[in-house]
Amino acid sequence: MGAKTERLRELLGEIFDLNAASAVLGWDQQTYMPPGGAEARAQQLSTLSRLSHDKFVCDDFGAALQSAQSEVAKLPLENDDAALVRRTARDFDKQHRVPSEWVAEFSLETARAHPIWEKARAEADFPHFKPALEIIVRLKRDYAEFFRPYEHVYDPLIDDFEPGMPTRQVKAVFDILRPQQVELLRATKEHGRPVSDAPVRQAFDIEKQRQFGVAVIKELGYDFNRGRLDKAVHPFTTSFGIDDVRITTRYDPDFLNDALFSTIHECGHALYEQGITSSLDRTPLASGTSMAVHESQSRMWENFVGRSRPFWVAFYPRLQVLFPGLLGKVKLADFYRAINKVEPSLIRVDADEATYNLHIMLRFELEIELMSGTLAVQDLPEAWNARMRDYLGITPPDDAQGVLQDVHWSFGGFGYFPTYALGNLVAAQLWEQIAKDIPDLEAQIARAEFAGLLAWLRENIHRHGAKYYPVELLQRVTGQDLTPEPYLRYLRRKFGEVYDLR
Amino acid sequence: MGAKTERLRELLGEIFDLNAASAVLGWDQQTYMPPGGAEARAQQLSTLSRLSHDKFVCDDFGAALQSAQSEVAKLPLENDDAALVRRTARDFDKQHRVPSEWVAEFSLETARAHPIWEKARAEADFPHFKPALEIIVRLKRDYAEFFRPYEHVYDPLIDDFEPGMPTRQVKAVFDILRPQQVELLRATKEHGRPVSDAPVRQAFDIEKQRQFGVAVIKELGYDFNRGRLDKAVHPFTTSFGIDDVRITTRYDPDFLNDALFSTIHECGHALYEQGITSSLDRTPLASGTSMAVHESQSRMWENFVGRSRPFWVAFYPRLQVLFPGLLGKVKLADFYRAINKVEPSLIRVDADEATYNLHIMLRFELEIELMSGTLAVQDLPEAWNARMRDYLGITPPDDAQGVLQDVHWSFGGFGYFPTYALGNLVAAQLWEQIAKDIPDLEAQIARAEFAGLLAWLRENIHRHGAKYYPVELLQRVTGQDLTPEPYLRYLRRKFGEVYDLR
Fold it and tell me: Cβ–Cβ of B34/A244 closer than 8 Å?
């Protein structure tokens, strides 16, 4: 490594440490912190994030970056340093375009908006949230202006979470996806053999749920020597470096799916972070390359593996041993159908595989209209409910179960939602490639053998961290751009079978 | 508050936040961190401590301090700002003498040393720890050199924990203490009525031990809304601000004293931190004024309260209800004698009140020899064992139960140990004053009423935080300098009674 890149790495390492410290404080905040600690914790996190930001945008850093750029100019992208400098330059440029006045106002307004949103949701009172949301929408539109010229006002927003993914492309993909998912949903409802989820809606002892979840993710490959599993209100994965990647879950005593699939989902995120090659540690490349690719990993393990029939061929007998009274007489086939029941529901995070993307597309369309100025904030609840009827055939009884359900808009996370659906598509695209490369994949899973699958993901996805942009990674691995077809094929095959369609 | 002191407070607040973040990372390191996280954690702590140090010693800070000094020059010490500026100036001067490179190296080496010490202790393998300890000893000797001229090479070290306490004074006090404690130990052994600790050496269910400990410290006044109790290898108290003060303990399934008195001990530390007045929060005065004063609080609650007869008049019936099989037939008098059994033992934290200080004096002497260069690290186990024989008449069977037992040297805490013994002395000095101010103190304790005692401590000690130096505080409250006599009176009375001496 050249001396100038070495210097850049040092500065990035310091910033990495500050961000890792913030992550530890955030983890503690959501797992063990006593209530009294909240106020001081907010102060500590604010200080750490300001110091980290200052170190990133300062002149010293800019100079070090420029020197490193000239040093790596002729290196191929496969070179860690070349990739590191490229990605750093991109982030530096993005941050530099945004005036500090905007940053200050945005952080002030989102900090104000969060408790307002919480109250509004608790009381199903959208008008209470409306003025705060109007300010945030205005600020995000101002934000887009810093990135002129753009093709679409939404482009700079989505780019924060999904580098290099234009709105046009997302729209094109969603336009194919939407009618076919709506059609599939209609088919299951009108022609499907009804599915009962009664087997998973029983009183499952929480400690046994935890034991089973731990046993499962150990077998999937989660390394408890370099991570741990705790409880949190909202499940999440967090990394303090590639050798300390922690996950959290939550337990519903009356519904098996909640903790189990949350745990596998977060395990999927964690396997990605734990699998990054050590040469990238303590740099900004020591993380997933984008939200969609991250979500492809969590959704793959959760759904393509965890909600598959082969998986339960291996694990259902063990689950029955743990819950003989509840599941002893339930057949594998019925259990498998129960965990895969399709039912239009109000809340995104509870949605099944067949309806999940519809929740996302609804949000994506509303965000675009808000940003384009064709939808006013005050008309948002009505627009939300209309789309819920169109796509899912149900109407929220109040705004708490409708437009107010997600935290994202209160922190200004416009552009984030689409990555959830894109993650599903990426997962399916990768899965078709994996099935080619590992012909007996399903047989391996049915024997609870995950080493082959994990090795494939390690080699093709995990180890690279954020070295390649998502589109590059997808091209390298599948030879293709993002396409909705594999996911649609997956959905049709799976739910055609679960619901005995045709 | 003047504008210049306000500015100083801002800068101190930022430093406080960085230190609080380090404390959270340190807490996590000793409670929940998976083994794989150790290396990155060392790096993160090193970065945070360097940034904190840099912010403290930088020219900006120096200028702000000077301005504030002129602003508060005419204010009395009772004024928060005046005290804050005075203490800050002292710390500034101390830190200014220490180069950032040393701070970074020290933090890195001590963070690395911790898991090495843990492994060495687990395997009773001193040679495994030796290289790490040699580095730390070297670094601490280098540290002392930054404070030349000194009266004694050990002075700068002890001053970090006990401001204004010269080695000479500690030696003088210990020279009075040692022969009288050795004599008391001899008397109990040769003339005392034998005490059996069989009642506390039974198989006590750990979960019940935990429940009892929690119930006790709640009644003592520990606020679980602003703290929590976790398990750790070495019990400790840590504060992230006065509203988040956490304690840890450990459980021995075959010995009741271990967790119980550790928990009360740490609770005593935490009551001090939780009792600091809120106007001092987010400043360096939001902590105990010294380790000895801190230890006076922990030892007072642990021993003067928790190992007293009146305390068990209140709590023994409850303990019997929890462990009817083990304690149902054990009389209060025998239980009281059991928890106060005097017996030379290998492990400091298990030592009874009559032998505890002997463990401390041994460490104090070894530290002085290590720092003076008259003892090499490799000869430490032998020197340790020789003094164990001289003072306590016993020899450790291995180094895990000898020289490796304490965590302190692994974090470079040379100068720390003597404060434990000094804490006992301060506790006794305060206790004589409290007994004067609250004539029915013992009766209150026997009714499990601790509000009066806690209010006295809040008023006279806790609320001040680090506003006054230890010697000032002791003078304010007792009208005296540090003296060993009250503690010797306390020991002779208590163990004269427990052992039916004379």
Answer: yes
- Looking at A97, A122, A149, the residue that finishes a domain is A97
* B100 touching A (Cβ < 8 Å): no
Touching check for B472 and chain A: CB below 8 Å?
no
Residues of B in contact with A240 (CB under 8 A): 37, 40-41, 44
- Average confidence (pLDDT) over B122-128: 97
Identify whether residues A86 and A110 lie together within a single domain: no
Question: Which positions of A are annotated as active-site residues?
Answer: 266
- The reply to whether B332 and B471 lie within a common domain is yes
Q: pTM of the full predicted structure?
A: 0.93
Given A97, A116, A134, which residue is the final one in a domain? Answer: A97
Q: Please state, in angstroms and rounded to a whole number, the distance separating the CA atoms of residues A398 and A405.
A: 10
pLDDT at B208: 98
Domain that holds residue B61: 3-96
Subunit contact A18:B282, Cβ cutoff 8 A? no
Does B400 lie in the same domain as B252?
yes
Residues 6 or more apart whose CB falls under 8 angstroms from that of B458 comprise: B275
Q: Are residues A407 and A443 in the same domain?
A: yes
* B469 HSE (CA, 13 A, CB side): 16
Question: Cβ B21–A20 below 8 Å, yes or no?
Answer: no
Q: In what order do the strands lie in the sheet with B245-249?
A: B229-231, B245-249, B237-239
Q: Could you tell me if A249 and A259 are in contact, meaning their C-beta atoms sit under 8 angstroms apart?
A: yes
CA trace torsion A43, A48, A49, A54 (10° rounding): 120
| A25 interfacial to chain B (CB closer than 8 Å) | yes
ipTM of the complex: 0.94
Is A41–B244 a contact, with Cβ atoms under 8 angstroms apart?
yes
- B44 near A CB under 8 A: yes
The answer to whether residues A493 and A421 belong to one domain is: yes
Query: Is the Cβ pair B43, A282 closer than 8 Å?
Result: yes
pLDDT in tens, B226-276: 999 999 988 999 999 999 999 999 999 999 999 999 999 999 999 999 999
What pLDDT does residue B350 have? 83
Q: Are residues A85 and A170 in the same domain?
A: no
Q: Looking at the 3D structure of chain B, how many domains does it have? A: 2
Cβ distance of B244 and A33 shorter than 8 Å: yes
Overall average pLDDT of the B462-483 stretch: 96
B51 touches chain A (CB under 8 A): yes
Residue of B nearest to A11 (CA): B47
Q: Catalytic residue numbers of B?
A: 266
Query: Best residue in B14, B28, B228 to probe A by mutation, most A CBs within 10 Å?
Result: B28
Q: A17, B47: Cβ pair inside 8 Å?
A: yes
CATH number at residue B339: 1.10.1370.30
Query: Which is nearest to B48 in space by CA: A44, A244, A202, A426?
Result: A44
Is residue B114, in this structure, part of any structural domain at all? no
Q: Are residues A350 and A427 in the same domain?
A: yes
Choose among B34, B46, B230: nearest Cβ to A228: B34
How crowded is residue B316: how many other Cβ atoms within 10 Å of its Cβ?
18
Q: Determine contact: A467 vs chain B, CB below 8 A.
A: no
Say how far apart CA B180 and CA A484 lie, in whole Å: 85
Give the pLDDT of residue B100. Answer: 81
| Mean pLDDT, range A444-465, rounded to an integer | 98
* A78 lies in the same domain as A108: no
The C-alpha of A273 sits at a distance from chain B's nearest C-alpha, in angstroms, of 13
> Is residue B90 in some structural domain?
yes
Q: Is A33 in the B-facing interface, judged by CB distances under 8 Å? A: yes
- Convert A426-439 to b/e letters by CB count within 10 Å (16 or more is b): bbbbbbbbbeeebe
> Residue B29 pLDDT more than 90?
yes
**pLDDT tens digits for A293-350?**
999 999 999 999 999 999 999 999 999 999 999 999 999 999 999 999 999 999 999 9
Rounded to whole angstroms, the Cα distance separating B251 from B177 reads 32
